[in-house]
Amino acid sequence: MAAQRMIDKLTPVLDAAQLAMLKGEPGAKEFFESHRHKIERYQKQIDLSCSEDIPNDALCSLTPREPADNIVSKALKSRDDYSIMLNAVGYGTGRILRVASNSVDPNTVKKFELLMSSWSVGNGLPTWENITTTLELTHGVRLTRSYILQNPSLYETFDKHANRLLTIKFLKRDSSLRWYWNIEQATKEVFENWNFSVMGCPNHENIASQISLELPFMQTSAVALEKNRRVSEMLRAKKKELHDIGWIYCSSGGFVLSQRKTTPNGTEGMNIHECFTQLTEQWQISDGLPTYENITKTFEATTGFHITKAHILSDSKLKSEFYSLLARAVATGYIKNIQGRSPSWDFPTIINSIVSSNSTSDLPEVTFKKLLLEFPKIHLSYLAFTRFYNEIKKDH
User: Fold this and answer.
1) Burial level of 310, CB count in 10 A (0-12/13-18/19+)?
2) What gap in Å lies between CA 303 and CA 325, rounded to an integer?
3) pLDDT-wise least confident of 52-56, 188-192, 219-223, 349-353
4) Which of helix, strand or coil describes residue 170?
5) What does 242-256 look like in DSSP terms, one character per residue?
6) What digits encode the pLDDT tens for the residues 353-384?
């Protein structure tokens, strides 16, 4: 058995300690005296288990031995003495009450009943500290948690009104009678009344701020909301909802990349992909070169979404729509796109189309004005135009 194994281990150790003690080595005597008692107690365990006077399946235990004369035992005794002294002071000052019987002053029960019956969320959480402090301040009665739990009348009153408070949707309690704010329910209430144009995109910080505004009795923080798994799930669902109806742009991982700064006209209820598809389908040559800069700038002006080149390239849907627009623009012949470079105007083709469609008597000045009228986004000086114009006239 385990006791015999410990005796076998300690015996040579004590023999060595006894030899060291005979040689006068420091600490040997204290070590020997401390561990000698262990062997004695192990031997008593063996004697009890082997005794024929004790019936089978009996539960046996050894009486506590006298504490050894060492620093650990002295520290434990000092702590016990200090605890006894504090209890004595608490009993003397009334901070700790003795429950001598099941009876209690009827007046105290009435005051406690009055307090608990009027308790609401405006009083805060019905924690033991809050209840006892409020009772002392309002009714001059000093009670403790243990006194309430041990007295049937007080505990019955507490339990009855605790069950009433549990019907309030913003309160909840665990099996240890600890009370918490139901921040999941509070978040749900806030989301039902969420006004994007005023509050912006929801996050843990502005949710906590909104809870404090709508439910001032509830004290919570952004950190508490962030640690709550259910609240985080609700936040992700809310972001997805706002993404689907076009108020924000979320990545596939749920991170908010952009949110609308204005209320757009004609694109309400459309998400960013639908808005971008509409933009690319309506893009005309007269709108200018389909560069990342022009596309994102126009997109922000028409929809309120601020996106960048990186957003377009990292999103497969946006990237596909952009490349489709670029291919359609190149197919017109007026734009050329050399791989690795931004799209640019094909000036010879553009000027040649204008010259071919106009009368041969048109002067260069007239043709240049027509060019600027049909392609208002082109930035071309008259000098550069005349160079292209003269080359085309030679070919004709």
Assistant:
1) exposed
2) 18
3) 52-56
4) coil
5) HHHTTSEEE-TTS-E
6) 777 776 555 677 887 888 888 787 788 788 87
Distance CA 391, CA 396 (A): 9
- Rounded Cα distance between 177 and 129, Å, is 12
Could you tell me how far CA 237 lies from the centroid of its own chain? 14
User: Mind giving me the DSSP string for 358-378?
Assistant: S-TT--HHHHHHHHHHH-TT-
Among 97-111, 163-177, 363-377, the minimum mean pLDDT is found in 97-111
CA distance 214 to 211: 5
pTM check: above 0.85:
no
Facing residues of 249 across strands? Answer: 258
Instruction: Give me the residue spans of the domains in the chain.
Output: 2-50, 106-181, 186-244, 272-342, 347-395
Q: What is the pLDDT of residue 375?
A: 80
Distance from C-alpha of 262 to C-alpha of 301, rounded to nearest angstrom:
9
Amino acid at site 156: E
Round to whole Å and give the CA distance between 248 and 271: 8
316 dihedral zone (left: phi>0; alpha: psi -120 to 50; beta): alpha
> pLDDT tens across 297-307, in order?
888 888 888 88
Strand-pairing partners, residue 180, are 172
Higher pLDDT, residue 59 or 128:
128
Tokens read off for 178: 């600890």
